[in-house]
Amino acid sequence: MDLSAIDPLILAASIMVASTPILLAAIGELVVEKAGVLNLGVEGMMITGAICGFAIAVQTESPALGFIAAAVGGAVLSLLFGFLTQYLLSNQVATGLALTLFGLGLSALMGQGYVGIKAPATSDFNVPLLSEIPVLGPILFQHDLMVYFSIALIAVVWAVLKYTRIGLILRAVGENHDAAHALGYKVVRVRLIAIMFGGACAGLGGAYLSLIRVPQWTDGMTAGAGWIALAIVVFASWRPWRVLLGAYLFGGVTVLQLNLQAVGLDIPVVYLSMSPYLITIIVLVIMSANRGGGALGAPAALGRSFHASS
Amino acid sequence: MKFTSILAGAVLAVGLSGAAMAQDKTKVGFIFVGPVGDGGWTYEHNQGRLALEAEFGDSVETVFQENVPEGADAERAMTQMALGGADLIFTTSFGYMDPTLNVAAKFPNVRFEHATGFKRSDNVSTYSARFYEGRAVQGHIAGRMTKTNKVGYIGSFPIPEVIRGINSAYLHAKKVNPDVEFSVVWAYTWFDPAKEADAATALIETGHDVILQHTDSSAPQAAAEKAGNVITFGQASDMAEYGPSPRVSSIIDNWAPYYIARTKAVMDNTWVSTDTWDGIGAGMVKIGDISSAVPEDVKAEAEALRDSIASGAYSPFTGPINKQDGSAWLGEGEVADDGTLAGMGFYVEGLTGDIPN
To answer: Which residues on chain B are in Cβ contact (under 8 Å) with A5?
Structure first.
C-alpha cells in the first residue's frame, strides 16, 4: 500500500467531475419536487439528454450546442410526463417509472448510429488569475465550464427559492396547491415549468456524462445515476446547498474507493464499494433522528395530483 | 352451435399452422447481460446472433433480451423465452449459471448453452473462450511498454474467468519486465461506463500507464485517450476506433462459428450436452491488430507468442509457477490442467492484494 501515490489535488478535481452529473440532475429534481411533483423519470431524462447532447455535439462538433440540445431534449421528454400527470391526472409514480423505461428505450433507438464515435473535445476553462493560486487553483478553478455552471445553478436555485416571489409561488404550489389555486396562481402552469426545468437539468447531467466524464455514447450509460440523484434530493431534505453536499459526498466516496483500490489499500473491496450507499443511509438516519422523524421537510403536496374542480 | 364449431375449427387451424411453423423454424434465444450496443462483450454475442441469421436465413428465428440482471430476473427472462417456443437458448454471462440450470430442469426439451460457466446437465452445455491466452499476449506488450512499471487492471467480479486473465497477463508481463507491478481495481459491474471511466482515471492518476480491463464498455479507452501517454487493450471487441493509441491491441471474441455449429446440431437433432473451451488456435479468441504505437520488435515478439499459443506449442500457464503465498503450483515444464484453470481462485506469486470473496 502506498497512499502517497494518491495526489489529493487531483483526487479532489476528479471528485468534482464525477459528481457533476448527479448534481445537475438532483438540483433539477429538487425544483420539481418543491413544486409538489414527484418525477421518477430522472434516469430516462438523463439518458435522453446524454444521447441528444452527444448526437448534436458530434454533428455540429460543438459541445456547447450539444449541451443546449441535451437540455431541450430532457425538457421535451419531461413535457410528456407533465402532460400525462398535470392534464390527464395520471399517477405520478407510475408515469415517472414509465418515463424512465421509455427514455432508456428511446435513447437506445436514437443512439444506434452513434456507438463507437468519439465526442468532440471540451477544453478546460481556467479561471483567470484564480487558477494560478497554489493548491486551491488546480482543484477549484481548472475545470470545464459545466462544473462551474452546476455550482452556479445551485446558488441560483437557492436564491430564487428563498428570496424571490417566483420561489415563493413555487413553494406555495408545492406545499398546498388548493390554497395556491385559491390565491389565483396557475398551479398546473407552475408545475409544468418546474417539470421542464427538471427535465432540462437532467438532460444536462446526462450530456455531461456522454460528452465530458466518459466521454462516448453507449446504451444505458447512465447506469442508475438518475436514481442516485433522486435519493440525493431526499438526502438533502429538499435544500439546494445540501444537494451540493450530497452529490459531492456521493461522488467523492465513489472516486475515493477506486483510488484506494488502485494503490492497494488493504480493506476488502466490498466495504469500499458499498460505502457510498452506507453513508447515505447513515446520514438519512442521523437527519431523521434530529428532526424527530416526520417528513424531513418534504413539500406537503408532493406527489398529489391537482385539478381545479377538486 | 354452428358458430362455436366454426370458432373451434378456426382455433384448431391457427394452432396447427402455428405448430407447423414451429417445426419449420428453429427458434434460438439469447440472454444478454448488457445492451447490444455496449461495443464489447454483448456486442460480440449479438454479432454471433446476426451471423446465425445470415447463415440459416428463414429456417431460423432468433430472439434476444438485453440488460438482463444476473439473478432471479434472469430466470424469469429465460422461462419466458422457453415458453415462447425457443428450441435453443444461449445465456451469455457467468452469473446466469444457476438460473440456467434451474430453468433447464423445468424445460427438458429446450436446449441451453451457458457461456463461461462450469455446471452442466443433460440439456445444458457450457462454452467459453480461453481469453487468458489473449491476456498472455496483452501482458507481454504491457510489460514491454510500461514506463512507470505500474499496470492497472480493471476487474469486474472476482470469478475464475477474471482471475485467470489477471494471472496470465501478470505472468507474461513479469517475464519480460521483472519490475512490473499490477494494481487490480474491482468495479463490481460488467457494464457501467461512468464507473469504468472513473476506475481508469483513478488508475491513471495514481501512476499506472497501461490499463487492462475486464469490463465491457470502451469507457476506459476514452479515459486513457483523454489522459494521453497511456495504453489500453480492446476487450471482447476490437474497439479499433481508439487505435492506434491508446488502444494498441485487443482480444476479440468470435462466437459466430460456435453459434452456427450448435444451431445446426439442434436442427439435425444431434445436439448433446458438452463443454467447449476454445482459444486462439480454434479461432474463438482473436488478437486484434497490434497498432503502430507498439515498437516493431515488441510487436514481433507478441505475434510470435500468439502463434506459439495458437499452434499448441506453448501454454500460458507453464511451470514453474508458485501461488501468491509462495507454495508451489506447477513444477518446471508442467502445464496447468483445465480443471484447475476452470475453478481458479488464487493469484500467482508476485501479485499483491487479496481476491475479494
So the answer is: 206-207
Per-residue pLDDT tens for B142-159? 999 999 999 999 999 998
Q: What is the pLDDT of residue A177?
A: 93
Domain that residue B269 falls in: 27-129+255-278
Rounded Cα distance, B273 and B120, in Å: 7
pLDDT at residue B271 greater than cutoff 90: yes
Is A192 a domain residue?
yes
**Which residue range(s) make up the domain with A196?**
3-119+144-290
Neighbouring CB atoms inside 10 A of B147's CB total: 8
Report how many domains make up chain B.
2
pLDDT digit string, tens, across residues A158-167: 999 999 999 9
For B229-244, how does the pLDDT look when each residue is reduced to its tens digit (9 = 90+)? 899 999 888 888 887 8
Size of interface A-B (CB pairs under 8 A): 119
Same domain for B31 and B117: yes
Asked, for residue A300, whether it belongs to a domain, the answer is no
- Rounded to two decimals, the pTM is 0.81
Report residue A142: phi and psi, to 5°: -125, 60
A219-262 tens-digit pLDDT: 888 888 898 899 889 888 899 999 999 899 888 888 888 888 88
**One domain for residues B266 and B213:** no
Shortest distance, CA A79 to any CA of chain B (angstroms): 27
Residue whose grid cell is 457510498:
A276
Note whether B244 and B261 are same-domain residues.
Answer: no
A258 CB near a chain B CB, below 8 Å? Answer: yes
Query: Do B302 and B186 have their domain in common?
Result: yes
The angle at the Cα of A275, spanning B222 to B235, to the nearest 5 degrees, equals: 25
Which among A21, A223, A268 has the least Cβ separation from residue B192?
A223
Same domain, B166 and B302: yes
Residues of A in contact with B36 (CB under 8 A): 219
| CATH code of the domain in which A271 resides | 1.10.3470
Asked if the C-beta of B51 comes within 8 angstroms of chain A's C-beta atoms, the answer is no
Structural domain contains residue A228: yes
Q: Which residue has the higher pLDDT, A66 or B39?
A: A66
Q: Is some CB atom of chain A closer than 8 A to the CB atom of B69?
A: no
Residue A213 lies in a domain: yes
Q: Where do runs of H (alpha helix) occur along chain B?
A: 2-24, 41-56, 72-83, 97-106, 131-145, 160-176, 193-205, 219-227, 256-267, 296-310, 338-342
| Residue with the three cell numbers 466521454 | A215
Average pLDDT over residues A141-151: 85
Q: Is the pLDDT of residue B307 over 80?
A: yes
Q: Say if A216 is an interface residue toward chain B (CB within 8 Å).
A: yes
Taking an 8 Å cut-off on Cβ atoms, the answer to whether B205 and A11 are in contact is yes
Contact A19, A250 (CB under 8 A): yes
- The closest of A254, A291, A261 to A275, measured between CA atoms, is A254
B125 in contact with A, Cβ within 8 Å: no
Mean of pLDDT values over A135-159? 84
A18–B contact, CB cutoff 8 A: yes
User: Does residue B213 belong to any structural domain of this protein?
Assistant: yes
Any CB–CB contact under 8 A between A12 and chain B?
no
Contact at CB, A220 and B218, closer than 8 angstroms: no
Asked if the Cβ–Cβ distance from B194 to A21 is below 8 Å, we say yes
Q: Do B202 and A10 touch (CB under 8 A)?
A: no
Q: What interface predicted TM-score (ipTM) does this complex get?
A: 0.78
Q: Cα separation of A302 and B15, whole Å?
A: 51
Q: Rounded CA gap, B169 and B40, in Å?
A: 19
Residues B210 and B272 in one domain: no
What is the reported pLDDT for A290?
64
Chain A closest CA to B305's CA: distance in Å?
A: 29
